[in-house]
Amino acid sequence: MTDDESLDLVKQAIRGAGLRATPARIATLQLLRRSNSPLTHAVVAEDLAALGVDKATVFRNLNDMVDAGLLRRTEVGDHVWRFEVIGPDAKHDSGHPHFLCVDCGTVSCLDDVKLTAGSQRASEQFGEVTEILLRGHCNDCRDES
């Protein structure tokens, strides 16, 4: 896929969600589509600052795109929202577990990890599972010890 095709798909997704395809929204969605893990507002704002996009605009656009169904907002227990893409052409098209390194704070997507049928049945007695978070020591931090 060429960069022009990718840009057109991003614009179509934004417009299809009922939002204006502004340069800041396009850059935000492109950044999140390239990411292999959820990104914080601070990381997105830092990346887009070079384009002249201020933190308030980034925050507003992230939340607008969550409301429009383009992004998912996740909090992993540290009171920091992280954002990731959802949608038919996205890497993260449905809810999936995350791994949080308790040493460095890195959050990674575990796209292929699923509850077993038995675990799903057992959890249904308590309610609906909407999120799974695994905590541990990432390989980089483990290798340092």
Care to describe what's here?
With about 140 residues, the protein is α+β, with helices and mostly antiparallel strands. The protein folds into two domains: about 1-95, Arc Repressor Mutant, subunit A (Orthogonal Bundle); about 95-145, Ferric-uptake regulator, C-terminal dimerisarion domain (Dna Ligase, domain 1), CATH 3.30.1490. It is about 45% helix and about 15% strand. The chain is built from six helices and six strands; from the N terminus they run ααβααββββαβα. Strand 2 (about 70-75) and strand 3 form a beta hairpin. Helix 1 packs across helix 2. The longest helix is centred in the first third of the chain and has 14 residues, at about 5-15. The chain is globular, with a radius of gyration of 17 Å. The N and C termini lie far apart (about 40 Å).
